[in-house]
Specification:
2 helices, disordered N terminus
């Protein structure tokens, strides 16, 4: 499932960098998927399904995603493609060589999931994302993004994704509806994801989804505010292991 709420954070990450700091170092891109239910995973824009956990990042509570900032280079590291992760990519209004800005989320979990790993059509799941657990290449930028001016994590600490209406599209590809609640706003998106592994009580999915931060009232519209340097379009990429609950 491709969940857009994460993307909101990515775009935000750019704002402080554009207005107060030097451009962030280059960020790597990657693919991810989000979907259904599981023990340590989160969904957001790319895929929605249900599932179970394989050993990669499943623990019924929260998962720690790879991709911590690199102390040596100062750039946000790309996540291990073989490990569960949730990342949002953002760009400046006027593209820069350092784009995209990578926002890696460390804590996400599937609070409930109902599906048959052998036939996931009709499955449902609810995923929660800790909005204060993200990091980019700059601690100063992270603190700015978490402030009341942007995500306001003190008031909106969690983003929730409810997955439903899962349907088979073709091969290992599925579609679903992802209802995302973040920053006091709820939006429903049609998402697509691929099932890359299936076990008796779990599935592993990957996908990505594009959306706009303006859907959740984050930041300002560059078309109306010439001083806004952050682009509106975001992409969330995920790989998740989902375990039936």
């Amino acid at each position: 499932m491709k969940f857009h709420l994460l993307a909101v954070l990515a775009v935000l990450a750019l704002a402080p960098s554009c207005k107060k700091h030097a451009d962030a170092p280059p960020a790597a891109t990657g693919s991810a998927a989000m979907a259904g239910s599981a023990t340590d995973s989160t969904a957001t824009g790319s895929a929605a399904a249900a599932g179970s956990a394989t050993g990669s990042a499943a623990t019924a509570g929260s998962a720690t995603a790879p991709g911590a900032d690199s102390a040596a280079t100062g750039s946000a590291a790309a996540p291990d493609e073989n490990a569960d992760h949730v990342t949002v990519l953002a760009h400046h209004k006027n593209p820069k060589p350092t784009d995209p800005v990578r926002i890696n989320f460390e804590k996400f979990k599937v609070v409930k999931a109902s599906f048959d790993p052998k036939k996931i059509e009709g499955g449902t799941a609810t995923i929660e994302l800790d909005l204060a657990s993200f990091h980019t290449a700059s601690d100063e930028r992270d603190n700015h993004l978490k402030s009341e001016s942007y995500l306001d994590v003190g008031k909106f600490a969690t983003a929730t994704i409810d997955i439903a209406n899962v349907k088979h599209k073709a091969g290992a590809t599925y579609t679903a509806d992802a209802k995302v609640t973040a920053h006091g706003t709820t939006k429903t998106y049609p998402v697509t994801f691929d099932v890359i592994d299936t076990k008796d009580d779990s599935i592993r999915i990957k996908g990505q989804h594009a959306f706009t931060r303006l859907d959740f009232g984050v930041g300002t519209d560059p078309a109306k505010n010439p001083e806004e340097q952050v682009g509106t379009d975001l992409t969330i990429e995920m790989v998740l292991t989902l375990k039936k609950t």
